[in-house]
């Protein structure tokens, strides 16, 4: 992050809380089961992931692209890719 001070730009370094990041990146047991079911071809698992993440993905995509149609296409493409590449999920 940078802060403008008069005419100079001063970089600010924010230390990372690694313990918090590790906790946030841990997959819940429920998510792990959902991904395992998805990998086996369970369409209900894909629907569950869609219900859980599509609004967040749409919101992020819309903020980045500032276009409703493009954001909707991104969501669609991501979930198609998840389904077609389900065997590669670790």
Verbal overview:
This protein has helices at residues 18-25, 29-39, 43-65, 68-84; strands spanning 2-5, 8-11. It has 90 residues and is mostly helical. It has a domain at 28-88. Helix 2 packs across helix 3 (43-65) and helix 3 packs antiparallel against helix 4. The two termini are 33 Å apart.
List keywords for this structure.
90 residues, 4 helices, two-stranded antiparallel ribbon, 2 strands, mainly alpha, single chain
User: Which structural class should the secondary elements be placed in?
Assistant: mainly alpha
Shape: flat
Low-confidence stretches: none
Question: What is the element string, with H for helices and E for strands?
Answer: EEHHHH
Q: Approximately what portion of the residues adopt beta-strand conformation? A: 5-15%
Compute the separation of the termini in Å: 33 Å
Largest sheet entry: 2 strands, antiparallel
Strand order of the largest sheet: 1-2
Mean pLDDT: 83
Count every beta strand, where a strand is a DSSP E run of 2 or more residues.
Answer: 2
Report the C-alpha radius of gyration, rounded: 18 Å
> How many helices does DSSP assign?
4
Helix content: 55-70%
